[in-house]
């Protein structure tokens, strides 16, 4: 093959190859563009995925309602009063108070001297009566001697029967006068004893009207709380009286808020026709926090029953209603209105709104809103001590 033939062959091959080159370039460019599109789509999908997955608002612990034995209580209002009051007055009139030995708030014992009267007048009267007794005794002795002589002469006829009867009657009359004077002397002795005002029982002086130098005419001198005992007189609706029994425990809270443990002593047999309330008398110890006449509220323990409870931190108060934040399977919280009941320690009864299988935010619910996404951390189940019926 000569040189010209070879050149012609090469030119023909070039003519056949040149039309395919643009096609290859187009294919390459298309491939690059397709890869860029795929990369851009993946990046966009990732960005959209990030936008769809919200960031958790808060890391929270969740808890579930637990069954707890709760004491049933009945609330009531009432007043604190003395168990019994003793009115202490003078048993003698017209005398001047010489001393007053006690004041309001003093604790006294039975027989203790509270006040004394000036005894001069009584002593003078007693001396006069004693003299009259001595005179009557002398007259009685003389009359008895005359009667004895008359008896001895009764058989001799020296005295008539009439005279003898007169002597005997005179002796009896003289003896009666002696008895009368002695009785009068005892009265004066009693009056002398009444110049001392004595405490009739152990107790605390609650009021005093005795004033040194005053001439007493029968008025009250002191008022005493017998044995220092106080009671809470609770006003309870007639429909609830049947739930209270003697011996039940009650917690009485006077003005300072400190609870005083008491015991139901009795229930009034009648109900007020105006208020339809009955009085329940509760004995309370005199600890110093309670005062007769104070208003006090209280609660009666009337039994125990089971109920679902949650920690108080899990219950939120909003707009006057109670709510909990329930955590769903998608880690989103939903706000649920609940009805609360009794409280024991740091737990509160949930009467309505959630069941025992619900998972709710244990604390920090005030920072969350309905629909927020949270990161859940399971809380350790705390042991709840049952409250047994007492």
Brief descriptors of the model:
390 residues, four-stranded antiparallel β-sheet, six-stranded antiparallel barrel, disordered C terminus, 21 strands, alpha+beta
Assign the structural class, choosing from mainly alpha, mainly beta, alpha/beta, alpha+beta, or little secondary structure.
Answer: alpha+beta
Major sheet: order of its strands? 2-11-14-13-12-15
Number of strands: 21
In DSSP terms, counting alpha (H) and pi (I) runs of 4 or more, how many helices? 4
Shape: rod-shaped
Helix fraction?
25-40%
Characterization of this structure:
This protein has helices at 3-17, 21-52, 120-152, 161-193, and strands spanning 58-63, 66-82, 85-89, 95-100, 107-108, 113-117, 196-198, 203-208, 215-216, 220-226, 230-237, 249-253, 260-271, 277-284, 295-311, 316-318, 321-327, 333-344, 347-352, 360-361, 374-378. It is α+β, with helices and mostly antiparallel strands. The strands form 4 sheets. A 6-stranded antiparallel beta barrel has the order 2-11-14-13-12-15. Strands 3-10-8-5 form a 4-stranded antiparallel beta sheet, with no helix packed on it. Helix 3 (120-152) runs antiparallel to helix 4. It starts with a helix and ends in a 12-residue tail after the last strand. Mean pLDDT is 82; it is low at 16-21 and 381-390.
Concise structural overview:
Helices cover 29% and strands 37% of the residues. By secondary structure, it is of the alpha+beta class.
Write the layout of secondary structure elements.
Layout: H1 3-17, H2 21-52, E1 58-63, E2 66-82, E3 85-89, E4 95-100, E5 107-108, E6 113-117, H3 120-152, H4 161-193, E7 196-198, E8 203-208, E9 215-216, E10 220-226, E11 230-237, E12 249-253, E13 260-271, E14 277-284, E15 295-311, E16 316-318, E17 321-327, E18 333-344, E19 347-352, E20 360-361, E21 374-378
Parallel strand pairs: 1-21
Antiparallel strand pairs: 1-20, 2-11, 2-15, 3-10, 4-6, 4-9, 5-8, 6-7, 8-10, 11-14, 12-13, 12-15, 13-14, 15-19, 16-17, 17-18, 18-19
């Amino acid at each position: 093959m000569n040189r010209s033939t070879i050149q012609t062959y090469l030119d023909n091959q070039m003519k056949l190859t040149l039309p395919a080159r643009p096609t290859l370039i187009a294919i390459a460019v298309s491939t690059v563009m397709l890869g860029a599109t795929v990369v851009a789509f993946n990046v966009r999908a990732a960005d959209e995925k990030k936008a769809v997955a919200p960031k958790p608002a808060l890391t929270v612990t969740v808890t579930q309602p637990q069954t707890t034995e709760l004491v049933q209580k009945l609330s009531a209002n009432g007043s604190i009063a003395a168990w019994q009051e003793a009115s202490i007055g003078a048993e003698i009139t017209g005398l001047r108070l010489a001393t007053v030995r006690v004041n309001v708030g003093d604790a006294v014992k039975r027989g203790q001297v509270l006040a004394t009267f000036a005894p001069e007048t009584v002593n003078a009267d007693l001396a006069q009566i004693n003299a009259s007794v001595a005179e009557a005794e002398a007259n009685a002795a003389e009359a008895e001697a005359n009667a004895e002589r008359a008896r001895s002469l009764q058989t001799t006829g020296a005295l008539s029967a009439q005279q003898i009867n007169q002597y005997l009657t005179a002796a009896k009359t003289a003896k009666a006068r002696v008895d009368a004077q002695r009785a009068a002397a005892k009265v004066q002795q009693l009056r002398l004893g009444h110049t001392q005002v004595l405490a009739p029982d152990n107790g605390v002086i609650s009021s005093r009207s005795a004033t040194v130098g005053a001439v007493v005419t029968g008025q009250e001198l002191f008022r005493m709380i017998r044995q220092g005992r106080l009671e809470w007189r609770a006003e309870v609706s007639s429909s609830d009286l049947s739930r209270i029994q003697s011996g039940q425990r009650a917690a009485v809270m006077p003005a300072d808020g400190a609870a005083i443990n008491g015991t139901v002593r009795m229930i009034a047999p009648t109900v007020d026709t105006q208020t339809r309330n009955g009085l329940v008398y509760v004995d309370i110890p005199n600890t110093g926090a309670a005062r007769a006449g104070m208003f006090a509220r209280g609660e009666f323990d009337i039994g125990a029953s089971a109920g679902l409870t949650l920690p108080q931190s899990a219950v939120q108060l909003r707009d006057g209603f109670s709510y909990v934040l329930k955590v769903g399977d998608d880690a989103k919280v939903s706000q649920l209105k609940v009805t609360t009941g009794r409280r024991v320690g740091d737990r509160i009864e949930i009467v309505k709104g959630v069941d025992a299988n619900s998972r709710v935010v244990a604390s920090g619910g005030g920072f969350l809103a309905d629909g927020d996404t949270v990161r859940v951390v399971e809380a350790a189940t705390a042991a709840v001590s049952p409250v047994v019926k007492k």
